[in-house]
Specification:
Layout lengths: L1 H13 L5 H18 L9 H13 L4 H20 L26 H8 L7 H16 L3 H5 L6 E2 L4 E5 L5 E5 L2 H13 L18 H14 L8 H14 L4 H8 L4 H4 L1 H17 L4
Antiparallel strand pairs: 1-2, 2-3
Subcellular location: Cytoplasm
InterPro entries: CB, DNA_brk_join_enz, Integrase-like_cat_sf, Integrase_catalytic, Integrase_recombinase_N, Integrase_SAM-like_N, Recomb_XerC, Recomb_XerD
Pfam family, one: Phage_int_SAM_1
Length: 286
């Protein structure tokens, strides 16, 4: 099992150009399945083996989303083994994915976003950095991994665009607002460090995603926001506010870097909820 997993992970990295995050998830899921199999050879895996594994996950009270991800990992793994000629049949083909509950992404009001962005103390270099990061996240809707991966030469201050590398290391160009660009300039002037990376930690090394999450938690408390807010909440807010102000779904899809429009369509539920709220408040017989 282990040698097959290693071969598959190399295939993902070299041929599919998968992101580190994707490879990490596959590694976790496949090794977990390997432990479940114990010493059973991979060619002995059939439909019932997969069903027993899913039952095992259910006993551990995993969410349907987590279970679906693990099944998706197994599908890709066995598809690779079939393609590679090691197996003749993919044992996951006849297994249905668990039904997932549709949860609406959380987002902040425009007022709360302003409170959060303006929370850092711009009298300090650290505060300038934090203001620049928050402005950039909300201005572009980029992912946290894309934010911490930014390099100075990725930013076109004159053209008002920023280049990011998304999932699967796919490159895309995003518009970025004047306020975000001004905040980045203010930070770069004061940070006193030579580095290609834009956002640095206190040791003048590239700030990581975990470090940013701690920073965000600090300003959520400082701005007295009651909801649980993650870096992705600003991305959700970006998309929702654009749609509420008339942006079309296809453009928002491009900005978010979603491969499929169906991924972006979750945000239309949020705008529908807003319309319902307005209707119920305004219509005399609602």
């Amino acid at each position: 099992m282990e040698r097959h997993i290693d071969k598959f992970l190399r295939y993902l990295e070299i041929e599919r150009n998968a992101s580190i995050h994707t490879i990490k998830n596959y590694t976790t899921d496949l090794h977990e399945f390997g432990i479940f199999l114990k010493d059973a050879p991979v060619e002995s895996v059939d439909y019932l083996t997969i069903r027993r594994f899913l039952a095992h996950l259910k006993e551990r009270n995993l969410t349907s989303r987590s279970t679906a991800r693990k099944l998706s990992s197994l599908r890709s793994f066995f598809k690779f083994l079939v393609k590679d000629g090691y197996l003749k049949v993919n044992p996951t083909d006849a297994v249905a994915s668990p039904k997932q509950e549709k949860t609406l992404p959380k987002f902040l009001s425009e007022t709360d976003v302003v409170s959060l962005i303006e929370a850092p103390d711009e009298a300090t270099v650290r505060g300038l950095r934090d203001r620049a990061m928050l402005e950039t996240l909300y201005s572009t809707g980029m992912r946290i991994s894309e934010l911490v991966g930014l390099r100075e030469d990725d930013i076109d201050f004159i053209g008002g665009t920023v280049k990011v590398y998304g999932k699967g290391k796919k490159e895309r160009l995003l518009p970025i607002g004047d306020r975000a660009l001004k905040a980045i300039r203010n930070y770069l002037r004061k940070r006193n460090a030579v580095s290609r990376a834009v956002f640095l930690n206190k040791n003048k090394k590239t700030l990581g995603a975990r470090g940013f999450r701690k920073i965000l938690d600090k300003y959520v408390r400082q701005a007295s926001l009651k909801e649980h807010i993650s870096p992705h909440t600003l991305r959700h807010s970006f998309a929702t506010h654009l749609l509420n102000r008339g942006a079309d779904l296809r453009s928002v899809q491009e900005l978010l870097g979603h491969a499929n429009l169906s991924t972006t369509q979750i945000y239309t539920h949020l705008t529908t909820e807003k319309l319902k709220s307005v209707y119920e408040k305004a219509h005399p017989r609602a």
